[in-house]
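Supplementary notes for students who missed Thursday's class. We covered one full example, reproduced here. Read the sequence, then the structure, then the short commentary at the end.
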Amino acid sequence: MEVIRRSALIVQGNSLISKMIPDSLTLLLRKRFYTTEYVLHLAELEMSARDMSPESSYESHYPFTVGIIKDPFYNYTSYIAACRDLNVTYKTIDLFASDWVNQIRTSDCDAFVVWPGEFIQEWKRLYDDRLRFLTVELKKLLYPSYSSLWLYGSKQRQRDWLDINGFLHPRTWVFYDLKEALGFLYSAKLPLVIKLDIGATASGVWIVHTAQEANVFVKQAFSKGVIGKRADVRARQWRFLQFQEYVPDIREWRIIRIGNSYFGHEKGKAGEFHSGSDVVGWFAPPRKALDLIHDITETGGFRSMAMDAFQTRP
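Structure (token representation):
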């Protein structure tokens, strides 16, 4: 662990170094120093100077207390800051703890807020299971809603939800059978986009231009599993794979709804991907994109949601 701490300090001092490291060396380092622990330590270093008191110590004129659910990357500290700014009392809850149920029951909180983490599949499963227990069995009020959080981070669930509710999206195929996946590739139109179920900033996305490339991914998925870029080598997606049609020459918009407010921005492209490019265009989003998120969120009853919309060029 001490070696990881020293490495974290070095990389934090000059993040440009990481971009110069060859992929082969990166993979070797990931195998030696597990990514999950490394990323968690970086988050701990960044947040160490913040006051993250587990509960408020001030008087409030509001007759309620907000339960703030912790997350591994300390995003929940934004909720703490908001409660302090608004003079709202709060208590923090650790869903990762063995006694999480008792924490909920003894907290006397009137509602709970959460910023879930889906860095690895096990965390996604934990949030899905325990947030469902919190809302369905313990009858607690949660924001954002459980139904929207269940979709969060899972590309397969999002695809199925859009299909069931009749919303257009790029054609997507999910295979849990090796023969079916290989059979699909015989007649598939290339290039194709391969997506892992979990992974942000294009870390689990590849564009394959030949049938040979696609076959390699399929055979790996149904043997030793596929690892996302910059992901922990232990976090393999195994025995299923998702393909999506490649849509060239598009503009991509991040559209957000919070309550009854709508806003968004363009996601610029760097290389082959819009996601993770850090290129932001602050232009007014198209009205159709705003109408789309309105229709989606009204259908699902969602009041806190972000989505990406493709704008094809004429």
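Commentary. The CA atoms of residues 122 and 147 lie 19 Å apart. The first strand starts at residue 65 and ends at 69. If anything here is unclear, bring it to office hours.
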